[in-house]
Amino acid sequence: MSVVIRLSKTGKRGEGRYRVVVTEKRYRRDGEPIETLGWYEKREKEQKKEIDKKRYDYWISKGAKPSPTVEKIINL
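Above: the chain sequence. Below: its structure as tokens.
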């Protein structure tokens, strides 16, 4: 089982709202997640995020690979 941490799109069309989820790599982007770690919202002037860092570190220790976008968001 290959597990990844990636973004899942939510909200209305044209809005940059995403959930940070742990899911299996072969599942669809908006498919059923194993666990939801938090959310990320991108706007023109600012970015808001709330991500559970303890659970993120736990999943990394278990072998989950974050997507490049999620890695960039975590490091902001």
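The first strand starts at residue 3 and ends at 10.
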